[in-house]
Amino acid sequence: MTKDPKYLQHATELTGHGIVFFPTPKTASSSVKQIMYRMLHGKRFVERDEHGNRRRALPEYRDFFRTNAFDAIDHDLYRDHDRITLVRDPVERQISVYTGIAGNAGALAEDKIDMELAAALELKPNPNANAYFSNLERYRVLAGPIWAHSNPVTVSLGTNLAYFTHVFRLSEFDDMIAFMSEKSGLKAKKVHANKSTGDKKKMKKKAKFEDLSRKAQKNLLAHCAGDYALLNGYFSNEKYLDIMTSMV
């Protein structure tokens, strides 16, 4: 079925320079977008106005900073572009979702979720890492931010990385920015990494795979199986399987 062009979305583009970036949640995407915005406009996008109100309703924000699903993007716009993306170890990305979105941002706090739905799903608010990963698919249903950030990477990047002209690992972040700067001729100024908001005293420590229960580990790896298949050649789940074997 042919998609109606009026419903198609954009990726993040260095307009006029033939470079387009396809973001994935919890893969430094906010930092990359801020750098690209500054490259184009010579200034950082200001997240809040002088009254402290978020500016995310502005068309300027929606058009540049949104992360759109791969299948919703008008790919005809980018046939002749350098199509770039940044990828991250799937288990590390999911742990980052738990620490940053479920934990520090409070997406699973009692006042942020439907407690009747939580009861029906037999879930409790503010889960520890073991409870969260042991019941990941149900917690995804419970909170929109969790769902959006923990989606399989195929939602953001499609099912074939051959679509991209350049794929960088997260550890190659600086190399990717340098490539965009050199190719476009635009100066790239590094920005501070996007950090979780909230009371620093209450910030959760980053969970570690080896500290999870066996059930949580198995469930997490099962959720990431498709991501490892897509990112074969970039990341492997073998080190996590080795950890599980050593714990038997």
Structural class: alpha/beta
Strand line-up of the largest beta sheet: 1-2-3-4
Question: What is the C-alpha radius of gyration, as a whole number of Å?
Answer: 19 Å
End-to-end Cα distance, whole Å, is: 50 Å
Number of helices: 11
Number of domains: 1
How is the biggest beta sheet arranged?
Answer: 4 strands, mixed
Binned strand content: 5-15%
Proportion of helical residues? 40-55%
Mean pLDDT: 89
Silhouette: globular
Report low-confidence residues grouped into runs of 5 or more.
Answer: 196-201
N-to-C series of helices and strands: EEHHEHHHHHHEHHH
Number of DSSP-assigned strands: 4
Q: What oligomeric state is this?
A: single chain
What topology does this entry show?
Elements: E1 12-14, E2 19-22, H1 29-41, H2 59-65, E3 82-87, H3 90-104, H4 115-120, H5 129-134, H6 136-142, H7 144-150, H8 154-157, E4 166-169, H9 173-184, H10 214-230, H11 238-246
Helix pairs in contact: 3-7, 6-7
Could you describe the 3D structure shown?
By secondary structure, the chain is an alpha/beta fold. The protein has one domain (5-246). The chain is built from eleven helices and four strands. Strands 1-2-3-4 form a four-stranded mixed beta sheet. Strand 1 (12-14) and strand 2 (19-22) form a beta hairpin. Helix 3 (90-104) runs antiparallel to helix 7 (144-150) and helix 6 (136-142) packs across helix 7 (144-150). Residues 196-201 have low confidence and may be disordered.
